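Example complex used in Figure S2.
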Amino acid sequence: MGRVLNDSCRRMDAPLHQQEWRFIDTTVASGYENMAIDEAIYLSCQRGAVPPTLRLYGWQPPAVSLGYFQKLESAVDLEECRRRGIDVVRRLTGGRAVLHHHELTYAVIAPENVHPFSTRVLQTYMTIGTCLLNFFKHLGLNAQWVALRDKQRGAAFSKHETASCFSAPSWYEITVGGKKICGSAQKRGNGVFLQHGSILIDHDSDLLATLLISKKDKEAFTREIDASTTSLNRHVAGVVDLHVLGDKVLSSFQNTLGVSFSRGALTAGEAQLKELLFREKYQKADWNCKGSSMCAAVA
Amino acid sequence: MFPEGLKYIKNHSWIKVEGNKGKIGLTNFAQEQLSDIVTVELPAAGKAVTAMNPFGTIESVKATMDLITPVSGEVTEVNAGLNDAPEKVNQDPYGEGWMIVVTMSNPAELSSLLSAADYKTFTETEAAG
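Predicted assembly (428 residues):
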């Protein structure tokens, strides 16, 4: 697909004011379906078939997502997840495990050189992060970029002391009161990027410490999560409606990027691709276990 | 750092051609963008690869990225040392950080690849952002 796809994506590299972006409004789906939708959009964008897209979504049932390279057996207590009705799904993106429960998830998929993005990874994080920062500020939160001290901490944690994404702020992520409130991950290929991330509405440190595996004992792991993680409900009263939050996220992206978004849905091609990916990839143990000896236990 | 004598693609792979074989790796520009690389996933020897398609995946502390082969053929050598030392891609992207050797099935594909100067220009303009 390579060059042909890449060139077709390049054709969409018009100035933003000439290009309408697509907004796919908040839907709630399983982790398998959500990951299949994100990849279907990503692959369709590589084919030049769809415009830059912002998608918002929730998760039902709750799910733990694993980073692309993360080892299942050292990241998550599979039996505990199954006992509690929590799915386990592997992401296309890297990083560490996330419990998706009370959250609004965003996904941005676009050709990597569409202004104001570029092939520069950090610039993309910064641009999307500015949209999210403005969203949190609009809600009245004193949200800030991760400080250098925390970046260094994030680098230290990248050696997998803990399986949890929210235990380690990294570049251009957003904190409130020094605690991470939004975690993001990025995938790049054939001139297109996918960045998705979790905006925490509420979080349960005890549950997370029960589901994920850490070198620390559960109490210490819970304390670590409490010390590093916060969520909207700790700062704003009555944040429950995903659609209300979603409209605010959309407004922030529109105002920050100066982009016009058109509400839309998956194209027929994307819907077909999503069904294929859902059925043949994200529901399959082969993908979710990625070589783990525990493969038979998933999906 | 854009060594002469190599060919490049906009997906940030380089290829060094010797006879009907091409040694492939990730460019210095790309490794700088990705920052600290933590995992490299490469194909097994014997696998067939198709030009401008993914042959592997790389993960850094910032992002994961598909590795794209500039040419079609069969993978005949794999740099297994990257399993234990993925940081070699950061430290020496054109040397010890090489990834695979492909025995080319269609050397004519080389004619469409970028020179060092062309790739340098690409990184300074299109990719600059």
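Helices of chain B lie at 28-34, 81-84, 88-91, 116-124. The radius of gyration of chain B is 13 Å.
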